[in-house]
Amino acid sequence: MERPDLRSAGLWLGIAIACAVAAFAIAPQIDLEVSAWFYDPRTGFWMARLAWLESFRQLVWNLSIMMFVLSLAGLGFAWAKKPLLSLGARDWGYVSALFLLGPVLLVNIILKQHWGRARPADVTQFGGAHDFTPPWQPADQCVSNCSFVSGEVSGAVVLAVALMMLRPVVAQYFPRWGRKIWTMLSLSLPLAIMVQRVVTGRHFLSDTLFAALFMLALAVVLRRLMWRRG
Hints:
It is built from eight helices and no strands. By secondary structure, it is mainly α. The mean pLDDT is 94.
């Protein structure tokens, strides 16, 4: 795996998280204002009915699942002394742990099941029956699979991290321009999913932003712990 500048990445991530927390604490209405751009009082969040947007969301979600399965397979092959895609147990173990600790444990088991924040389409401002709550305020407006934070975005971010990990492998088989395309596609997937979740009324802007920041922070911390001695 390529070795990133973890100190610099951690510093910038810390600044980004602090700024995001401050921004939504001072002006939580940002979420409502952004979601309102895509809401029509007569038709609701009309982009939620676009089949191609839902198909794209499902495609990226399936790719995330496939990458998780591939990481488990790679871990098994590495233990059997038959490295998959020339990557060792620590590389595949890193991806597996990132999926398990991030999208599975932190997002879907802890936050989405216990934070209680209603989704945009379910709050009174957009024709629903539940109260809007700021992102950092636990609520009782949702029982399970709630809005804070986005599971799809967290999965897409971890998928992007894994795809970036595979860049050296891609470089062995494709020219330089192919590696650039791989990088652009990898980084664009989380951004595209963030947009999809907001415009369809399934998540607030803060849900998607904090999902991405949490996963990136976890990626940096886990990377530092697993490579501390090597």
